[in-house]
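G.,

No rush on this.
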Amino acid sequence: MGAGSCSYALGCSNDILVYEETTTSNTTTDKNGNKVTKVVSEEVVISGNSLNGLQYTGKPLRDDPADILAHELVGHAIPHATKSDTGNAVDNENKVRAQEGAGKNAQRAKEPTHVE
């Protein structure tokens, strides 16, 4: 994202940096042992790996790197750089998932403590 792009498009004061990390130094591990993303301010780091174990209505939910990037952007980075949306990162993510085509728009289970 070029300098000023975030300010113009989203009204934020800082650019949002997005990159794939190939080492584990800037990633964390979830309860299932998967490498997951880490957000620090408006910097988004993704591992490029899918996350296994997410559920919706008791069924597995797709969570590939594109889904993870969308979550990190709309759930954390953009609200930090601009203003809060729903206050909940998973609710923000589900807004994105709802826009996908039939059969691909399953909603992630609610996580009330997963804040922006």
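When you get to it, here's the other one too:
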Amino acid sequence: MNVDISRTLVKNNVGGCGQYMFRASAFDRDEYMVHCSRDGSTWTAYIVWPSINKVQGPLQPSLR
């Protein structure tokens, strides 16, 4: 869990993130690929920038 990511998701009205996993970008310190799920089996991806409170998505999940 990351408090800054959680706050950014809430501020952008992103639902269905009862649980999430995230990975930091190798190129941008404040960019994260976030995979959200309500039930642990269906996932949705977002790109999240906590420092500017911005979310892009939903995107196709890239989990394997």
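DSSP finds one helix and four strands in the chain. The helical segments are 3-11.

Enjoy the weekend,
O.
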